[in-house]
Amino acid sequence: MEKAVKPKKAPVDLCTRPLLKKTVLFALPLVLTSVLQLLYNAADIIVLGRWAGDESEAAVGAVGSTGALINLITNLFIGLSVGALAIVARYVGARDNDKIQKSVHTSLIVSVIGGVAVGILGFFLSGSMLKLMNTPENVLPLSALYLKIYFCGMPFNLLYNFGANVLRACGDTRRPLIILALSGIVNIALNILTVACFKMSVAGVGVATTAAQAVSAAGVIIALLLRRDAAKLVFKKLRIHKASLIDIIKIGLPAGIQGTVFSFSNVIIQSSINGFGDVAVTGNATAANIEGFVYVAMNAVAQSCLTVAGQNYGAAKSENIDLTLMQCLVLASGVGLVLGVGAYLLATPLLKLYGIGGDALSYGAERMSIVCTFYFMCGIMEVLVGVLRGIGRSVMPMIVSVLGVVGVRILWIYTVFEVRHTLIMLYISYPVSWLFTLAVHLICYLAVRKKTFARLNAMRETAEKADAEPKSESIAEAPFNSENLSGKGEKI
């Protein structure tokens, strides 16, 4: 008798209560992964601040101020990776192995095509866009050089993001953490080697980042090859499946557009900051890097909410979606308050870790006094966006975020900031936009909840009746019809 092969790694069940412990255990590796990623980005700036010699301050400003532009160019495809996460999680909940497999292989092909396209676009357009952003003259050449090298590694970057999101959709957040830890060691080691030893300044940091991205991409590919379930990567099955691509685009494209337009508002804010000079740019960039640690912790909770809600949406367990939302709102708020206020209270020593002082430190502390103390509202906003995407609503949060966050900020810059031209007044646009947007997201969730849950409950009742009747083995294997979850268009 042939011995059954036990799956090496099966999808984690996020549809059975209690959910809080599972959500926290799912989120913790995700938090650590994001924190590690930021630590490596922080290491870039710290190494430059300490070993870039006479141009250290300009080098820190050059690398630190590129984040908004990088996000503007890359967020469309990063959004598609969120679509892959939502769709794979949905089919894991529905236990639809065929669609899991097709979605995984389609996602990886899209990541490579997108990486090449974004890399070419960023390489050739970044210099011109930096000029449009009023980047200070002494920072511009360094920023342009860093971005050209950075975008050469974009295919690796997107391959890791898509692959890691596939693993997370299956409930596996541990492997992406291990992979990122290994690539981070490569990043830090090459940073020190290229900047401190070879005196390559921002070019060295760019090379180190690209090499680390290649390591992370290889790691996620190996992790998918080693799986023994429907999410296993099989090279000969790599192709774009039309239905899977459409599913991913339905969720991912609005998320990508939202992220791109969101980044556009940050580019406008960065352009306004650039007008205050290179010292303000350095202080702002350093503070933004510290704030990133608070954001990724809250965003990890939001991604957990998306994944858990997505699996329960696929399993037609509507009662678990509400529970997950409430738990994640409490978690994100708590994390945002503790880390945000803590970062503000420790602003001076934290900023000094990056090797800055004087006016640059004052500028950084000024930003943190506004952004960090109110950051918990951004966490609430992200969780509400996550649950809406998890239940198949992606156009709605895109429109709300564009009008709420981007619209409010741009309106603020050209009205209030124009009258009172100070950095504090510019930074106040952040909490104002978060408060307005999270309120509208909550209204939207309550508006779509009743109809969505009624459909899920009807599906479950039908499935339970079918289970009570004699049926073929093939029907028993598929308790829910996943077509009913993806076949309907979204209504706003």
List keywords for this structure.
disordered C terminus, disordered N terminus, globular, 0% strand, 492 residues
Structure described in brief:
This protein is mainly α and 492 residues long.
Structural features, described:
- The chain has 492 residues and is mostly helical.
- It is built from 20 helices and no strands.
- It is globular and about 80 Å long.
What's the shape?
globular
What is the chain-wise order of helices and strands? HHHHHHHHHHHHHHHHHHHH
In angstroms, what is the radius of gyration? 23 Å
Work out the strand percent.
Answer: under 5%
Describe the biggest sheet? none
Unreliable runs, pLDDT <50, ≥5 residues? 1-8, 471-492
State the share of residues found in helices, binned by percent: over 70%
Determine the structural class based on helices, strands and strand pairing: mainly alpha
Write the SSE topology.
Elements: H1 20-51, H2 56-64, H3 67-94, H4 97-132, H5 140-152, H6 154-169, H7 174-197, H8 201-225, H9 242-274, H10 278-314, H11 318-345, H12 347-352, H13 358-371, H14 376-390, H15 395-414, H16 416-419, H17 423-427, H18 429-468, H19 473-476, H20 483-486
Helix pairs in contact: 1-2, 1-7, 1-10, 2-5, 2-10, 3-4, 3-6, 3-9, 3-10, 4-5, 4-6, 4-9, 5-8, 6-8, 7-8, 9-15, 10-11, 10-13, 10-14, 11-14, 14-18, 15-18
